[in-house]
Design a protein that fits this description.
The complex is a heterotrimer of chains A (256), B (219) and C (221). With 256 residues, chain A is an alpha/beta fold. Chain A has a domain at 103-167. Chain A has helices at 53-60, 82-90, 107-117, 123-136, 152-164, 182-197, 209-215, 233-238, 243-251, and strands spanning 15-24, 27-37, 42-46, 68-73, 76-77, 92-95, 170-174, 201-205, 218-223, 226-231. Chain C has helices at residues 6-10, 12-46, 49-64, 67-82, 88-113, 117-125, 130-163, 172-183, 186-215. The longest helix of chain C is centred in the N-terminal third of the chain and has 35 residues, at 12-46. The chains are: A alpha/beta (256), B mainly alpha (219), C mainly alpha (221).
Amino acid sequence: MTAFTRKNADKPPMLVYDKVRKNYGNFTALDGVSLHVNAGEVVCLIGPSGSGKSTLLRCTNALETIDGGEIRFEGRPLPVADADMRKVRQRMGMVFQNFELFPHKTALENVALGLTTVRKMDAGEAQRRAMALLAKVGLADKTANYPANLSGGQQQRVAIARALAMEPHVMLFDEPTSALDPETVGEVLNVMRNLADEGMTMIVVTHEMSFARRVGNWVVVFERGQLLEQGPPQQIFEAPTTERTQEFLSHLGWNG
Amino acid sequence: MNLDWSIVWQSRWLLLEGALVTVLLTVLTMLIAVPGGIVLALMRGSHFKAVALFATAFVELFRNVPLLLLIYWAFYVMPVLTGLGLSPFATGLVALCLNVSAYNSETFRSGINSIRKGQTEAGLALGMSRSEVFRQIILPQAWRRVLPVLASTWVSLFKDTSLVSVIAVGELAHTAMQIRSQSFRVLEMLTAMAAIYWLLGYPQAKIVDWIHRKYGVRE
Amino acid sequence: MEFDFSPLLDSWRFLASGLGLTILLSITAVISSLILGMAVGLGRLYGPSWLKSILVFYIDSMRAIPVFVVLVWIYFAVPIISGHTFAPFWAALTGITIHVAAYVAEVVRAGLTSIRKGQSQAGLAIGMSSSQILRHILLPQAIVRMLPALGSIISVTIKDTAIAAVIAVPELMRQAETLAGQTYRPIEIFTAVMVIYFLLIFPVTRLVDRIYIRVAHLGRS
């Protein structure tokens, strides 16, 4: 097999996880995880439930704090001070498994909220940008809907638009399609693929193996808080180097 | 401001008696108002329009007027209605029972309604009669939801008994206020009254919290 | 058994002034209880630990002490301590506010803590500060969830104003007592006043219920 070069490997990585450790009481969620993410890469984190993939994602934007090691974003370790971390969060976008749209605001208001409160943008300008983003995810006609009047797939697309509004450098997806009906999974994966094609750096925790195979540039396999193996999709899905990875994939019914 | 707290110690037996009357009123009221509430809740669900309407009117009336007014009203109306001369204690008890039965009926009604219809249907499908279904299936499940609310109602009732003091029932508030008038030790007696209610009520409130934690149903 | 409702017609102005005062006292007490209760609820959730302990003590104490006792203490005991007399209306307003605010604080707390953690995390994820999250995301949803309790807060407050009769506030209950004593027609008068209170309280709780049904989905995340 010819050596595989990762995207933008000649430039410094955007995110570096250096021996990251995280405990919940006696339970070790992350046990010295080291990996890096280059600009423009779509990195997919896969593995059984409870293996630490979501935890790593939430540590990335400090929704959870790490107990050991270091996370470096654009060359600098994540700041400790709240006000500084807030600024860093503005450069990262997160999409949650259960969307977490704000129920008391319309789709448009959900997308514009970050712009008006955090960026202190003028309301008219914020609305214009929100409109454009909702059109981009295919929801130009639903801007006045409240989340209660949107399907799961539509809500998740609004959530993606909301994260994009802040013009992040990296998008973090935490099992974005796990809570969706099978019919609507496709529309969300499409939006994500378009985003990838535009060159957005993405870290995606997912069980959608076909997405990881077709859109991912780099796949990381987790098990029990450790990295089992990592590599390009062709390697992981067609010729995994560890038995455990093979077992995991065949458990999911993945037949290559 | 010269204070003499010894009056509190001197009146301790009177105050204890008052507190016991308070407890007695609370216990008796609940003994009557819990079955009363169940009966009213069943009447509201009755298929006979007149019965349901009467029960609804009863409940809405006694939930939406001040208890103090109810106490005065009972004091003047009862002798005329029943022809009996009821003691202040009995009158106060009647007013409290009317009020708390109305609250309890709402508690039971929402507790019963919160049990899924499917449960009743399953029981009927087994061939049980409606009253058997109610007793064996609905009521035991409804208790879990109803108990925390009844506990809170108990604590409110305990405080509300203070209002029957206005018709000279010898419970704690009336006793303390009397001693205050007779001894002119206003600050001491009023503070003692508050303190005794606090001592009695605080543990009850904590027990209610425990019951809510233990039996509370999360939505 | 004959009934004579004429004293009601003769003295309707007397009762009406009582009703006016009841309404005034109710409105001001509801507003001040909501403000104080919101402040206490927020302090209890987000304040420093010493403040939390004080506020929890205050809230639990109001669950134990009857409003009658609070009113009577403020009206009779405070003047002794401070040397100033307390006008009945203000004593009643203060007492009812202190008592009801504790209940409001618990409703505020329940409303805020019932919101899923994910909502504040979503706010954090777009870079919002804790106070922005509270203001834009949590409080609006909490207020919607509080509406059903708001109905009962208002109705409890109106009923508590009747207790102010005991400290000589000339609201409706007091006027009714006075009139009954003067005219020896307690049954007619108290029955009529019961109807008035019912007409006052019943629509308010129904209205709040209706409003809640309309806006409930805004609080459901």
